[in-house]
Specification:
Elements (H helix, E strand, L loop, with lengths): L15 H4 L7 E2 L10 H17 L6 H20 L6 E4 L2 H9 L9 E5 L4 H14 L2 E5 L8 H15 L4 E5 L13 H10 L5 E5 L10 H6 L2 E5 L11 E5 L1 H6 L39 H15 L3 H20 L4 E3 L9 E6 L5 H10 L2 E2 L1 E4 L2 E6 L6 H14 L1
Parallel strand pairs: 1-11, 3-4, 3-5, 5-6, 6-7
Antiparallel strand pairs: 2-8, 7-8, 9-10, 10-13, 12-13
Helix pairs in contact: 2-10, 3-10, 4-5, 11-13
């Protein structure tokens, strides 16, 4: 009984909206913040909790069950990321997935970090503190201005990268899918360019908005650190994610936050060992985690597959975001950030002569419509997912038309 995920065929007649209680009483456009948890995934979590209590919780009977849960989850996430399981570490969230390997990388005092101007504050803050502690310098990679189609975005990023790289650049930080504008970054192409650089800078990718929304295997396999969470577009439980790591990070990186899961022998502290740590991704895992969440995430991934393979889901999301972009563009006071329909489900826009974005979010929320505001650039963001309907898009556009 190592896998407590729900049977994916048991709910084949239900729509995604019907599977998620959180979608029954609201018009929801905040998948980029957190996805709703389907009922079968909650049931899988509960079943796992019950099984652990029946077997243990701390007995010799429970460990095979826990090992099976951990190993099956690691294999599943590794497969989605296009990497072997030994290169996939389990994490609690994107931040820990980024920061724990990052802080273990070897840097020299005069090295430079190149960070895009669209990164999440949590990752930026970690890089700033790393630079302060190790005497590193930080440069900015401008991508916020990229607002066109994918070919022009790719070309613009390539040009910005050429202008921003220096002989001392040792790390590049770039999200796969920008959380503020919704643009997709060509991670594989960036990795190839960095491989040609004399210092072969590491590539850290924040995958918070890509995992569960767009195909990620190519990017995850080419990045050095590709960190994601299961609670956004994959609609899994909060508190569980993963990070795909390159082989050189496993060989060159050192553990930073250390616990028994980091150790090859967790049963004793060996003061004579110069290298007590796992030589695979587990060297970046720490200690006790919530095992039942793993069954919940696998259940959500199964249900997502039931509603279409990754490419098909992405195409549906694109169709819906295009419809929303078109509707917003037709409103005189509304200006989408992108000058054409987005390639992802993130649709960011600005409204002239309207209340402050945070106030507008609350105003819409009182009517049961949920979007969010962003600070940089100051805008509003609505996210479409496979569960979004055209009726919900029309409802949002109608509500915004009365405000604008």
């Amino acid at each position: 009984m190592g896998d407590t995920s729900s049977n994916p065929t048991a709910h084949s007649s239900l729509t995604w909206k019907q599977l998620c209680p959180a979608l029954q009483n609201k018009t929801y456009f905040n998948y980029g913040g957190q996805g709703p948890l389907p009922t079968p995934s909650l049931e899988a979590i509960t079943a796992s909790w019950k099984r652990i209590q029946e077997l243990g919780p701390f007995t010799t009977d429970v460990w095979p069950f826990i090992a099976a849960e951990v190993n099956s989850t690691r294999r599943r996430l590794a497969e989605l990321c296009g990497v072997p399981p030994h290169r996939l570490a389990l994490s609690e969230n994107v931040t820990s997935g980024c920061v724990l390997p990052l802080w273990g990388l070897p840097f020299d005092a005069d090295d430079r970090l190149l960070i895009s101007d669209c990164e999440h504050p949590g990752v930026v803050a970690a890089c700033v503190e790393l630079a302060r502690r190790q005497g590193l310098s930080i440069d900015s990679l401008p991508v916020k201005h990229l607002r066109g189609d994918q070919p022009s975005t790719d070309a613009g990023l390539a040009e910005a990268l050429e202008q921003s790289l220096t002989p001392r650049t040792r790390l590049v930080v770039l999200s796969h899918l920008l959380w503020n504008t919704g643009q997709i970054m060509p991670i594989a192409a960036v990795a190839e360019r960095l491989h040609q650089h004399p210092r072969k800078p590491y590539l850290l990718v924040d995958a918070a908005q890509s995992f569960g929304q767009i195909p990620v295997a190519e990017a995850a396999a080419r990045a050095d650190i590709y960190a994601f969470t299961g609670h956004k577009w994959a609609c899994g439980p909060e508190g569980l994610g993963g990070v795909a790591l390159s082989q050189r990070v496993l060989e060159q990186g050192q553990p930073t936050l250390i616990g028994w899961r980091s150790l090859r022998d967790e049963s004793k502290a060996d003061l004579s060992s110069a290298d007590p740590f796992h030589h695979d991704s587990r060297r970046f895992e720490v200690a006790t985690s919530c095992v039942p969440l793993m069954a919940g995430l696998r259940s959500s991934l199964d249900l997502m597959e039931q509603h279409g393979h990754a490419e098909a889901r992405w195409q549906r999301i694109q169709t819906l975001s295009s419809d929303l972009w078109q509707g917003l563009s037709a409103l005189a006071a509304v200006s989408p950030l992108l000058n054409q329909p987005p390639a992802s489900g993130l649709v960011s826009f600005q409204i002239s002569n309207a209340p402050a974005p945070a106030d507008l979010v609350q105003q819409l929320g009182r009517d049961g419509i949920w979007i969010r505001d962003l600070a940089d650039p100051s805008c509003l963001r609505a996210c479409t997912h496979i569960s979004t309907s055209n009726e919900e898009i029309d409802r949002l556009i109608t509500a915004l038309s009365t405000i604008s």
